[in-house]
Give the backbone structure.
Amino acid sequence: MKREEIESLLPRQFQRTLRPGSPLNALLEVMELLHAPAELMLAQLETYFNAYTTPDIFVPYLACWVDLERFYPFYSAQPEDLQHSADPISSGTGQLRELIVAAAQLSQWRGTAKGLKLFLEIATGINGFELVENPDAGSSSPRPFHIYITAPPEAKKHIVLIERIVEQEKPAYVSYELKFKLEIQGGTDS
């Protein structure tokens, strides 16, 4: 609030005694200065609720609103000063921003192969995950309630995040195997 706005809220007796250089005048100026940071934040409030424009420090808080904090429990357990110097997930704050934006879509597809693949690709920022549901168990019969996940080799550095996502996003009764493609000259081989 500006000094004049605060002054208009004062009782008439205080307003009449207000003089330049008086203690009350100084107090009103201090009050204006104390309100300035909050007013600046309120003027930019919409930027805090947009995953792309919010400050990095606010991204984990937004992620909690869309139930994504379950993917970075170790970060959340750290003291606040350590949280400021680290990314919540191994792929970085940028990928967490993308997950926040896609949260409604991901929630819609939760428990499906499409949803799991999409989640893994957004979370890691790497395309090329392959999922096979009910794969053959070496014989002609399929292995029910099992998924086989093949991840690109560059995703190996995010293995903890990938495993946490698979555990959280697959149906509870489904088992899984996670393998990484091997890089071979001129292509990949699994």
